[in-house]
Design brief:
Shape: elongated
Number of helices: 2
Strand content: 35-45%
Number of strands: 8
Order of helices and strands: EEHEEEHEEE
Distance between the termini: 60 Å
Oligomer: single chain
Length: 118
């Protein structure tokens, strides 16, 4: 026999850092305790799929100067960690162009996460 199925594209995951979504407030120790951003599927999505972060850039103001450092991995580079160590409470941290790869091998850009430092 045959059966007609409706097929949908898997929704985009959302980018997170230390469990915080864009607009979250995190302490510097929470940020430094992470290896890098993660991609999580929406809570309503029923299937267990994993996306891997493949690149992103970290941007912020340090001592009045704008700094943006890109990496081609899913973890903070040593240069990015140096910038993170110099963040003060109230600073805004931007993780731009968070790119992920899904189980199908396709690449997706999740955009930017804004994190406020407590």
């Amino acid at each position: 026999g045959s059966k007609t199925f409706r097929v949908r594209k898997v929704p985009d995951p959302y980018a997170t850092l230390a469990g915080g979504r864009s607009g979250a407030s995190l302490s510097k120790s929470q940020i430094l305790g992470e290896l890098g951003p993660k991609a999580l599927m929406p809570e309503w999505f029923e299937f267990d799929l994993e996306f891997t972060v493949t690149s992103f850039s970290l941007a912020t103001y340090v001592q009045g100067f704008y700094q943006e450092i890109a990496t081609t991995s899913g973890t903070f580079s040593s240069a990015q960690r140096d910038v993170l160590r110099n963040l003060n409470p109230g600073a805004k941290l931007y993780l731009n162009d968070v790119t992920v790869v899904g189980p199908d091998g396709g690449s997706r850009n999740l955009g930017t996460i804004l994190i406020k430092v407590k």
